């Protein structure tokens, strides 16, 4: 019997049971429902009208959100969430599942102007230890006016955050340790439409060490649908870790950007359209561990195939250009020879 179903009866130890209505609501709300995670609480709410009423209390969902994403306890984020249709429950429903690019609509529709500010709630954990939790408001007008590449930086240029664990930056196993244990959540909040979405994979899909600086770069990627059929884009949250004295680690960069199939960073205007459409209309699903990395590898495969097709097309164009040049060259000399022969014949 699953957890949600077991909540509908109370076992007295003799093999019998009574309905959940026999349990005092205060006991349910204080000692039982507070022990459930978000998906289990959502499932429990569908088993009976009493549980549905009790599990709709916002303080339960606020506790779940604050526990999973400490950045949601920030006063500004709390005010934004309070405007959602069902407050923290709506926010959890938007942000907990992964965006599923395979089910997103292929054709984009005309969208209203973007909000003047885009809000981010970002949480970085090593296992269960919080490394960084931050709420950030980003002005969209500046990026749109400058026509710059879309990029949101969470930390100031000289700001660093120490890792709360004893990892030796110089150790060869450091990359694999971070790949397994360093998790990230980057939730983008649209304050106009009162919607949110998580644009970070839970675990990194790639971990690379810079051969020059020695920094370790972790990429957390969500794959999104592009404008054309079969086209995919990558929303990349990038965490850069550097070394400290004694071999320890600190986080020196955390950023968000959108890339096309060739790895080129998109500008603010296009990126905002893509992100806001995913926030409002993107399908959500609770995936299995490893699916995000599979999606990233699929994206790399498509990128490689696209590059190979481009090379073949360029090669065909080169061959066609050479053939055209040879044809023109031969035609020119044939014309010259004919003119010479005509001249000699006249003489």
From TrEMBL:
Q: Note the superkingdom of the native organism.
A: Eukaryota
Report keywords, A-Z.
Membrane, Transmembrane, Transmembrane helix
Which is one Pfam family of this protein?
Answer: F-box-like
Q: What is this protein called?
A: F-box domain-containing protein
- Natural source organism: Camellia sinensis var. sinensis
Lineage at the top is: Eukaryota, Viridiplantae, Streptophyta, Embryophyta, Tracheophyta
Instruction: List, alphabetically, the SUPFAM superfamilies matched.
Output: F-box domain
Q: List, alphabetically, the PANTHER family matched.
A: F-BOX PROTEIN-RELATED, OS11G0155100 PROTEIN
Is the Ribonucleoprotein keyword given for this protein? no
Domain F-box positions: 28-66
Stretches the record annotates as Disordered: 95-116
- Transmembrane residues, as ranges? 319-341
InterPro entries noted in UniProt: AT3G44326-like, F-box-like_dom_sf, F-box_dom
């Amino acid at each position: 019997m699953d957890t949600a179903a077991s909540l509908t009866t109370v076992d007295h130890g003799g093999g019998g049971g009574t309905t959940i209505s026999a349990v005092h609501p205060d006991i349910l709300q204080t000692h039982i429902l507070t022990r459930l995670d978000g998906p289990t609480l959502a499932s429990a709410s569908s088993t009976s009208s009493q549980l549905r009423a009790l599990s709709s209390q916002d303080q339960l969902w606020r506790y779940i959100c604050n526990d999973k994403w400490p950045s949601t306890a920030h006063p500004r984020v709390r005010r934004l969430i309070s405007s959602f249709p069902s407050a923290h429950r709506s926010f959890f429903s938007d942000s907990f599942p992964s965006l599923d690019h395979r089910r997103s609509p292929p054709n984009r529709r005309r969208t209203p102007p973007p909000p003047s500010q885009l809000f981010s709630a970002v949480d970085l954990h090593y296992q269960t230890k919080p490394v960084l939790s931050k709420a950030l408001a980003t002005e969209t007008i500046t990026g749109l006016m400058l026509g710059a590449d879309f990029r949101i930086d969470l930390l100031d240029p000289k700001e660093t955050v120490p890792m709360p664990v004893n990892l030796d930056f110089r150790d060869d196993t450091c990359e694999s340790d971070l790949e397994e244990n360093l998790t990230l959540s980057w939730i983008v909040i649209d304050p106009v439409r009162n919607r949110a979405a998580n644009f970070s994979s839970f675990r990194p899909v790639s971990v690379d060490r810079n051969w020059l600086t020695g920094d370790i770069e972790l990429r957390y990627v969500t794959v999104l649908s592009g404008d054309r059929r079969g086209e995919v884009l990558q929303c990349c949250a990038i965490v850069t870790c550097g070394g400290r004295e004694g071999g320890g680690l600190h986080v020196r960069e955390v950023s968000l950007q959108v890339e096309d199939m060739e790895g080129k960073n998109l500008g603010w205007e296009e990126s905002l359209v893509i992100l806001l459409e995913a926030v409002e209309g993107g399908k959500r699903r609770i995936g299995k561990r490893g699916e995000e990395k599979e999606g990233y590898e699929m994206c790399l495969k498509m990128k490689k195939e696209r590059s190979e097709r481009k090379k073949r097309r360029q090669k065909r164009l080169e061959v066609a250009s050479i053939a055209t040049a040879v044809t023109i060259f031969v035609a020119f000399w044939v014309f010259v020879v004919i003119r010479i022969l005509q001249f000699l014949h006249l003489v």
